[in-house]
Amino acid sequence: MVGKKNNMEISIMTHADLVIGQYVSFVVTLNSDEPIEPCKSIIIKNNSNNIQFDKMIIPISNDTCNLLSGGTATLGFTVLQKVGGQTVKDGSPITFDVTTDALAGGNGFETVKFTGKANELDINSLHLFIEHPYLQVPSGSSKLPSTAIHTTLKNKNTNKELIGTPIFITSFELHEMKEFVFKDAKNNKEIPVEKVGPNDGITIFSDSQGVVKFYLSPKLPLSNILGLKTVILNTRYESYSKVIHVVNDCDPINMELMDAPDISDYDPDGIAANAGLSYFLVSIYDYNNKLKIDDIVLFFVNGNYTGISVAIVDPKKQLNNYSMQVPYSIFTQGVSSQFSYKVIRHKDISLCSEALPVTYLGGIPYEPDPAVKRNYNPCIVHTSLGVGPDNTIPSGYGNYVNYDAIMKYPGYKYSGLFVEILCSDTHDPNATVNSVPLNINDITLNMYINSDNKNFKKSYNQQITLNEIGSDGNANSIFFHIPYGDIVDVRGTGNISFDYQFYLPEQLGYGVSWDANIGTIPDPGHTDNN
Prior knowledge:
- By secondary structure, the protein is mainly β.
- It contains four helices and 42 strands.
- It starts with 6 loop residues before the first strand and ends in an 11-residue tail after the last strand.
- The model has no long low-confidence stretch (mean pLDDT about 90).
C-alpha cells in the first residue's frame, strides 16, 4: 500500500527529451511525515533496451542506517547509440520505472514512471547567446555586473524544441568557472558549480519551451576572461561561445596609466584613410614589460568598448611597433574622439591607458565588408508603421529612407525603422543564399550611413518581439528596432546599408547587404513628437 504522505521525486522531468549517446544522472528523493525504514534501496525496473543504467539498485543515502524522515540516491544511465547492432532511432521512446523497497509508517512509495524520447541534437542549438559579453565593474561599487545567457535546444531533424534536456556548461580553460557566480533563469537561485571529469561546470535543464537560460556575474571586482563551452556528456556534441570580458574601472588618481596608443602617421588635426585601407595600424608601447602572454588588449572610443580586441601571444612582435590593425569604422567621421585601451588578464586589476584625441576625416565609406562570403538573405527594412508586408522599403539605390518612413504616426507606438531577418528550418544546398536557421538567436545587425553630415557604422544586438512591435508579421523572423534618433536629420543624398552576422560552428555567417538612399530632414515647421 502507498502512503498518502509518502512522496518520491526525481530531479529530471519525467517526460524529458534526451540526446542519443548522452550520459544522464539524476537524484531520487524520498520524503515522508513518518520515519522511513533504514538500509533500503532505489530499484530501477522496466527500463527500455535503448538505455543502460550504471546500477539497477542503489542504496538510499544513510551512513548509519538510522530511521530517516527523508533520503536520496543518485543514479546514472547512458542513452545507447546502438541496440543489437541497430542504430537507435531519433524519436524512439525511453522508459523506466523508479521504485523503492523502503516503507514509511508501514506504507510504500508510489512508483515514478519516466517516459521520454531519444533525440538527434541540432548542434547549432548548443551555441549560447551572451547578452553582455563585456562586463564593466564600476569603481567603488559593491554590486557586480551580470549578464543573461541563453539558447533553445532543438532536434536536428524535426527542429522541435527539446524539453527537460540536461546540458553541462564548463569553461575553455580548466577551473575558471569557480571565479563566477551562476544563477537560474529568474536570476534568483544560485546554481552550484560541480566537478564532472577533469573540469568544473554547471548542469542546467531546458525548460518546457526548450530554453536554457541562466545568469553569470564575477565573484570579485577584478578583470577576468571566461570562455564558455556547452557539452552533452558522453557525446561529441559541444559548442564554444563568445568570450566574456570582465573589466574593472580605471582610477586615474590611484593608478599609473599606460601610454596612449600610437597610430601610424598620426596627425592631431585628424587621420584619413588615404591609402585606401579599411584599417589603421596601432602600436602599444610597453617599455616596462608590464604586458604578458595571454593578456588581452581591448580598444575603446570615448570610454566605450569597440568590440576590437587583440590577444598577446608574442610580446616581442606585437608590442612597441605598429602591429595591431584597428578598423576606421570604430570612429564617427568628423567627430573628435578619445581613443584608448585597457589590458585585462585573469583575476587581476586592469591596466589602463591615457587617451589619444582622434578625429577621423574619412577616406573609406562605411559599408559592409566586401571581402566576406555572404550566404544568407538580405534583411527586410520596414517603416515605423510596423512589420507587415505593406510597410517595406525595397532595397536598391534610388529607393529612399525618407522622413515619412521614420516619423511617429498618430495611433502608432514607434518611430524609426524595423529590420527583419528571415529564418527558416529549410536549407537548399543549391541556392545562392538561404534564410538563417531557426535555431540561431545570436545575431548582430549592422547599419552603415554615409551622407553630407553623418557618416558612421552602428551595431545592434537587442532584438524586439512581434508582441512588442504590436504588428502582424512572420513569427519565425528575428526583428530589430532602429531608434528614430539614430537616423533622423541625415542630410543630402546619403546612402544607408544593413547587413548582419551570426555564429555557426567554427565560422561566422553573413547576410547579403540591403542598400538604399537616405535623407531624413524634417519638413520646415514640423513638430517633433518622436
